Amino acid sequence: MKLLNDHELEAALREIGAKHYHNLHPFHKMLHSGGCTREQVQAWALNRYYYQCSIPRKDALIVGRFPDAESRRAWRQRLVDHDGDAPGDGGIARWLRLATGVGLDAELVESCRAILPITRYAVDAYVSFVRERSLLEAVASSLTEMFSPTIISERVAGMLANYDFVDRDTLVYFNARLHQAPRDADFALNYVKTHARTVEQQQAALGALRFKCDLLWAQLDALYMAYVTPGMIPAGAFLSEALSLPVAA
Predict the structure, then answer these.
(1) Which residue in 204, 72, 213 sits closest to 136, CA to CA?
(2) What is the DSSP string of 138-189?
C-alpha cells in the first residue's frame, strides 16, 4: 500500500460508502419502497432507538480524548444535538417521537428490553470500539455521516409516499440531520486527513469506516432475519399481535 494524498484518501473513504453503506441493504430498500408492513416499520424504529440513544455515549468518549479545546468544542455539539438542552429536546427525543408516531409505546421503546440481540451486540461493539481504539479510528468511524444525507432523502420521501401512518411530524428527526450530519462529517474528514499521515494510520482510518458500515449493515441483517424471514424472531424481542411471523423455537 502507498501513502495517499488528501484527495486519494477521501476518495478511498467515499468508495467504502459507495460499496458498503446500508442504503444498499434489502431491508432499507423494502422500508423506503413501501414493502414493509406497519409491524416491520415498528421493529425498525424500536431497534434503531437503541443505536440513537447510544450515540451520545460514544461521542462523550471521543470528546474526552481530544487534547485541544477547539476539537472538544466542535465535537461536544453532537452531544447537544442528540441529548438536547432540556428534557424532550434533541435527536433522541425526536426519534422517540418517530417510534410513537408509528404506533409504539414510549415506555417499551425507552426500556430497550424488546430489541434484537444483534442490535444490542452491534451497538455496544461500536461504543467499545470508540473507547478502545485510537482517537483517529474513533473519529473515522463517524464518517458514515458523509453518506447520510442521501439515505435521509430516500427515507423521508419513500416513507411519506408509501405509508399512510407516517407524516412529516413523525419524521421530524431527519430535518435537523440534513444539516447536522454534513457539518459533523466535514470536521471528522478534515481531522482524518490531518492526522492520518502514515500508511498504517490511513489503513486504520479506512478500516474504522468499514467497521462502522458493517455494523450498520448487521443491524439491518438482524431486522431482515427476524421480521422478514418466518420463524426467526428471537424470544423476548418485539412481537406485535398483528405480526403473523412465528417466534423461533
Answers:
(1) 204
(2) HHHGGGGGGTHHHHHHHHHHHHHHH-TT--TTTTTHHHHHHHHHHHHHHHHH
Q: What angle do CA 95, 96, 100 make, to 5 degrees?
A: 120
Q: Domain 6-227 sits in which CATH superfamily?
A: Heme oxygenase-like (1.20.910.10)
Domain ranges of the chain: 6-227
What phi, psi does 116 have (nearest 5°)?
A: -70, 150
Query: Based on the number of CB atoms within 10 Å of its own CB, is 61 exposed (0-12), middle (13-18) or buried (19 or more)?
Result: middle
Write down how long the chain is: 249
pTM of the model: 0.93
Query: In the prediction, which pLDDT does 231 show?
Result: 82
Q: What mean pLDDT do residues 151-173 have? A: 95
